[in-house]
Design brief:
Elements lengths: L10 H10 L10 H8 L11 E6 L8 E7 L2 E7 L12 H4 L2 H4 L9 E3 L8 E3 L2 H18 L5 E5 L5 H10 L4 E2 L1 H18 L16 E5 L9 H12 L3 E5 L5 H5 L2 E3 L6 H14 L5 H7 E2 L1 H7 L5 H8 L5 H12 L3 E4 L10 H14 L46 H4 L30 H10 L7 E5 L10 H10 L2 E6 L11 E4 L11 E4 L3 E4 L14 H11 L11 H11 L4 H7 L1 E4 L3 H4 L17 E2 L3 H5 L19 E6 L15 H4 L5 E3 L1 H6 L7 E6 L4 E8 L7 E5 L40 E6 L1
Parallel strand pairs: 6-7, 6-13, 8-9, 8-12, 9-10, 11-19, 13-14, 14-15, 20-24, 21-23
Antiparallel strand pairs: 1-2, 2-3, 4-5, 4-15, 16-17, 17-18, 20-25, 22-23, 22-25
The chain binds iron/sulfur cluster.
Iron/sulfur cluster binds next to helix 3.
Length: 769
């Protein structure tokens, strides 16, 4: 204990003395001691931090990160200034990544279900027991039904080893929501017209664009750093922004012109735009003559789509359309018709996507400054892993798009290892959904196949991340699918409604705690980036590669995972590319410089590369005609609400990623619950006031309760809510029961040619509770 003579001036020592020794009252303290209590803390002497590099996993843009660690704990997330996806910037979601690793609700150790399926009753088990059980169930399923009875659904960067495991097992039934629930019709449209896929990290020359025609692309709220920064720079450089959305978003507030277009009718507006561009000869004549086919047929097809016709459907004044077309033509090719990020909404998403790509093509944007650039590729060969009996490795296209249509990928992914069973979701299967991408499949159709056990029994499910309930639209089908299974194993970092139904839960290390496969991308410069662990895995968790390898070994598939670790695998990949792990770990990224000649071939007069059947951009795609789907180019009537109904809409917000981040205690602070936006006139008519609780009911009877935000920022015939709320898993203690689920209200109708969901077709009634 300190004495008066050798008094330790630190507050800690003083309080220690009072607690452990003489019990002094505050009033009785000597003045010197009181002064010490009121003094500020001396500067803490914290240890220096170390820096490691990674790439973000909080959304799918994958910004480069620089993570600070102390005592083997990540303490701060910053952006990697070298990374072309974000140039050092990290958004609110990205910053909240620390609260994935440190989340109190994390899945902390392997567990097995002990109560009824879905009841959420668990028992902790060892990794050995968990992995042995999964391997045993895999063998049992194969023996009883065949390998096709396994479905694998992934969502995230860590899904790749699970796809590998499933293909090694011999099933063709692997899927990810990126196609059927999100970007499918958009990517497909790009590919049909140009052979190039503008999804994923879009290769738009945003900084130099002079005119953005934004079809609901809410780039400031559904945001990705590099894209949003590029767009802001473009606007700062003088680009005009014309924005269409039934809701006045933050992006609308930054636009030069805003039009509250009727929901689901973008296609009508775009067709009228094409009508004007071709009739007034506003297109890039040299480009169209030399690098496209199908112009005359397109011209004939759009004659009926006049601006006056479009006005009657869209509420966009007829006189506006030719003016926008002329303004764009004056700025072309530095213009861009911007598709929404997710194009799974209307009864003709394919036609909407096609119109966007056709307009961009008529304006000759490909490989031109301010239009679309060609990315530089950084070639990092895949390693020579044993080939699957039935398919090649499901791979993410390295540049310019989320899914790959090249070569034999679609065919390779539609049959099981014996060639007897085609994909259960029908993706790529003639007579079912031949246009759907067979690499990522139709997640919506896979759930249906499991629920109906058609076209054949699917009895085992493996999931890697994702949440079938809140990223889709049909709770009944998903619940039925999960209840039909003999066995369900879920690997994830966080609990959610879907993995609540698992028989075994495999807790994964978060993206801050592990190596992962390399990130190879294409921006104006080419790059390969590394994800290094910034901390030791917390709890009893393991990384995805290790989990899959350890299952594979137990299921007699060990030859498909020959490396001891993912670190060893990426070391070998880098070596094949002439680099090393030590080299990439210095800055987190290795780049090849941008090359304006390659990025903007058109500026040099060099023709663009369009890998279509004709080798040119096809204004009426030959593949559509061949498959007799060319009526997709025509307008299809959309659902309209009755007098007492509304169009139901939902969207993302800047600080949440889908339904993944509502339980994150950092992001939850921003918006604890979502609200239903409704126009004041519509609210008054129903006696609804701001903050009232209302019931929202879909025609099919599904309903949710939610508080109301009365606002002029939405059309009178439309209501809106932020996506991802209304969680019903009690393990998610932050998000549980907060707000309402848009997924439980959205439509499950399907795009008739693609098979993707058309979520925007729900019509709802709203009444005060
Ligand atoms: S935009 Fe934000 S959440 Fe998405 S990858 Fe970048 S930092 Fe992460």
């Amino acid at each position: 204990m300190s004495t008066h003579n050798n008094f330790d001036p630190s507050r800690r020592a003083f309080l220690g003395a009072t607690v452990g020794g003489t019990a002094l009252s505050i009033a009785g303290l000597p003045s010197q001691a009181l002064a010490r209590i009121n003094a500020p803390h001396p500067h803490e002497k914290l240890k220096e931090t170390t820096e490691v590099f990674g790439f973000c996993d909080m959304c799918y843009w994958r910004c480069g990160l620089k993570i600070r660690s102390r005592d083997e704990r990540a303490v701060k997330i910053e952006g990697n200034p070298e990374h072309p996806n974000n140039w050092g910037v990290v958004c609110a979601k990205g910053n909240s990544g620390l609260m994935v690793a440190y989340a109190p609700n994390r899945l902390k150790y392997p567990m097995k279900r002990v109560g009824e399926r879905g009841a959420g009753e668990w028992k902790r088990i060892s990794w050995d027991e968990a992995l042995d059980t999964v391997a045993k169930e895999l063998k049992k399923i194969k023996e009883k039904y065949g390998p096709q009875a396994l479905a694998m659904i992934g969502h995230g960067t860590w899904e790749k080893p699970y796809h590998r495991l499933a293909h090694a097992f011999g099933t063709p039934n692997t899927t990810s929501p990126v196609f059927g629930l999100c970007c499918g019709p958009r990517g497909l449209s790009n590919v049909m017209v140009t052979g190039r896929n503008l999804t994923g990290n879009e290769t738009i020359d945003l900084e130099n664009c002079k005119y953005f025609l934004m079809m609901g692309r809410n780039v400031t709220e559904s945001l990705h750093n590099g894209e949003t920064l590029g767009w802001i720079n473009g606007v700062a450089n003088g680009a005009k922004v014309v924005y269409f959305d039934p809701r006045y978003t933050i992006t609308a507030s930054k636009a030069d012109e805003y039009y509250a277009i009727r929901p689901l009718t973008d296609h009508a507006f775009l067709l009228a735009m094409i009508h004007v561009v071709v009739n007034e000869a506003l297109y890039d004549k040299k480009f169209v003559a030399e690098q496209t086919v199908g112009f005359e047929e397109l011209k004939k097809r759009v004659q009926k789509y006049t601006p006056e016709w479009a006005e009657s459907i869209t509420d966009v004044p007829a006189e506006v359309i030719p003016r926008i077309a002329r303004e764009m033509a004056a700025k072309a090719p530095s213009v861009f018709v911007y598709a929404p990020r997710r194009l799974t909404r209307s009864a003709n998403d394919l036609g909407t996507g096609l119109s966007i790509t056709i307009l961009n093509t008529l304006f000759g944007v490909w490989d031109r400054k301010g239009g679309v650039f060609s990315p530089i590729k950084f070639e990092v060969p895949e390693i020579d892993l044993p080939k699957f009996k039935h398919a090649h490795l499901a791979k993410r296209i390295e540049t310019g798009g989320d899914f790959d249509y090249s070569g034999d990928v679609p065919q390779a992914h539609i049959v099981d290892e014996k060639g007897q069973f085609q994909r259960a979701d029908g993706a790529g299967v003639m007579g079912r959904w031949p246009l759907a991408n067979a690499q990522y499949g139709l997640t919506n159709e896979m759930w249906k196949a499991m629920a109906e056990q058609k076209p054949y029994p699917i009895k085992m499910l493996m999931t890697a991340g994702g949440n079938g309930f809140l990223n889709s639209t049909d709770y009944k089908t998903i619940r039925q699918a999960l209840m039909n299974l003999d066995f369900y194993v879920a690997a994830d970092v966080m609990p959610n409604e879907m993995n609540m139904y698992a028989d075994i839960i495999l807790p994964e290390a978060s993206y801050l705690e592990r190596y992962d496969d390399l990130q190879t991308g294409g921006a104006k410069e080419g790059y390969v980036a590394v994800r290094m662990p910034a901390m030791k895995p917390l709890h009893d968790t393991r990384d995805a590669w290790t989990i899959c390898k350890q299952i594979a070994e137990r299921a007699d598939l060990g030859q498909y995972f020959p490396h001891d670790s993912i670190k060893e695998l990426i070391e070998e990949r880098l070596k094949k590319a002439g680099h090393s792990l030590a080299e990439i770990e210095k800055k987190g990224i290795i780049k090849v410089p941008a090359d304006p000649k390659e990025n903007f071939r058109g500026e040099q007069g060099i023709p663009s590369v369009f890998p279509t059947p004709s080798g040119k951009a096809e204004l009426v795609p030959s593949i559509l005609k061949m498959m007799k789907f060319d009526d997709a180019l025509d307008y299809v009537e959309q659902v309209r609400p009755d007098e007492d109904e509304f169009h139901f809409t939902f969207a993302r917000i800047g600080f949440h990623t889908h339904a993944r981040t509502q339980d994150n205690i950092f992001t939850a602070e921003f918006m604890p619950e979502n609200l239903l936006w409704i126009h004041p006139e519509a609210a008054n008519k129903r006696g609804i006031k701001d903050g009232d609780l209302v019931k929202v009911t879909v025609r099919d009877g599904r309903s949710e309760q939610i508080k109301v935000k009365v606002t002029l920022r939405i059309r009178k015939d439309t209501v809106f809510m932020v996506h991802g709320y209304g969680h019903f898993d009690k393990r998610m203690t932050t998000a549980y029961n907060k707000g309402a689920s848009d997924s439980n209200l959205a439509s499950s109708a399907q795009e008739p040619r693609v098979g993707s969901i058309s979520m925007g077709q729900s019509l709802v009634k709203v009444e005060k509770v």
